[in-house]
Amino acid sequence: MDTLAELRAGRLAGARRIDLSCGLTEFPREIFDLADSLETLNLSGNALDALPGDLGRLHRLRVLFCSDNRFAQLPESIGQCQALEMVGFKANRIRTVPAAALQLPALRWLILTDNQIETLPEALGQCAAMQKLMLAGNRLRALPESLAACSRLELLRISANDFEALPAWLLALPRLSWLAGAGNPFDMQAEQAAIAAQSVPHVDWPELKLGPKLGEGASGVIHQAALGPASQPVAVKLFKGAVTSDGWPHSEMAASIAAGAHPTLIAAQGRIDGHPDGTQGLVMALVDPSFRTLAGPPSLASCTRDVYADDAQWTSGVALRIARDIASAMQHLHARGVLHGDLYAHNILWNAQGGGLLGDFGAAWMTGALDAPQAQALQRLEMRAFGCLLEELLERCSDAPPQAMVALKDRCLQADVSARPSFAEALALLQGELSP
């Protein structure tokens, strides 16, 4: 059915969600007829450049999506919608973010990815409920100092901007766990060095025979492929080239190369040269099909936490092996000056016999340009992400979990960033628990 026609005919009374992507150039006023029920409004993929000044009439609105439109300014009127928890204006033309648009005490998740924003107002720090802030692909050189007061902030994307340095207060936020900062001037030299290095072999495109698509993410498409005369089974990731919610694909490629080889890491084995369209790509190991994804990505409701299948369950021994394998992969990355940036169960493959494999370097970045205290603080931020993973693994154990693993989880989740353990410490403890 034509949703717009249904709306205008008055046949959507009581609707809690409306999705309209039909070339709109003006906000349909009939939406206000749903003010007493509407909670989610998705106007992405239109040609809108303004919202009505009385948007606050939508007093029950909790989620507003306006991505892929023509907004040059974040509309001030969204600040009238006091129930808003999630706001998405990705891939517009936004240069200006007025303070009035951010008078949102319930806001948990703000997406301003892929715009032209140079500065953000101090009012952003008044969004005390903020958990997830997506700012990749803008022109930011600084963050408002007021953000230091956002103690609930857990995920921050500032990749592909113009930062010459990281704000010092950022490294002390008590709940920050997932931070992406690649593709900024302070990180550029390390990225270029990684891409120029000969640490992985170059693979000529004609040596590959592309097979079926295995998956697709924001940054690229993964295919099964055969390599060379022996038709060695491999996986091939071909990058799309556009900025993603995590940053630039070339930053992902740089981090993948810098990561090097490790038994529990799905890392690059080769870099592709000579694609007929100039597309960049990587050759990776083809993972045994018995491995499956540990969880799904966060939902609108869970915000920063992954979503597990209702029947997800394992023994404490399996949980220990997964935790050990991921700690081992992360210890390897940190030793090589690489931050993962997205240590989540949805980026982990597992099976009951083989433990866990960590992949997806879309949010990864490098610490080469940072001093030692900064690098260590960033590594301790990722320990909180590991604490979240341990918590999720422990909650789904079918038998009594090891108390040492519970204690490690608590240490990883503590608010004092500097007091958290390193991955080397975590790995030693988990290996000790698995020793006969």
Automatic annotation (TrEMBL):
The protein, known as: Protein kinase
Please indicate if the UniProt record lists NADP as a keyword. no
Work out whether the entry's keyword set contains Kinase. yes
Pfam families from the UniProt entry: LRR_1, LRR_8, PK_Tyr_Ser-Thr
Protein kinase domain location is 208-436
Q: Where does ATP bind?
A: K237
Q: Which PROSITE patterns match?
A: LRR, PROTEIN_KINASE_ATP, PROTEIN_KINASE_DOM
What keywords would UniProt list here? ATP-binding, Kinase, Leucine-rich repeat, Nucleotide-binding, Repeat, Transferase
Single Gene Ontology MF annotation: kinase activity
Q: Which InterPro entries match?
A: Kinase-like_dom_sf, Leu-rich_rpt, Leu-rich_rpt_typical-subtyp, LRR_dom_sf, LRR_domain-containing, Prot_kinase_dom, Protein_kinase_ATP_BS, Ser-Thr/Tyr_kinase_cat_dom
Q: Which organism is it from?
A: Variovorax beijingensis
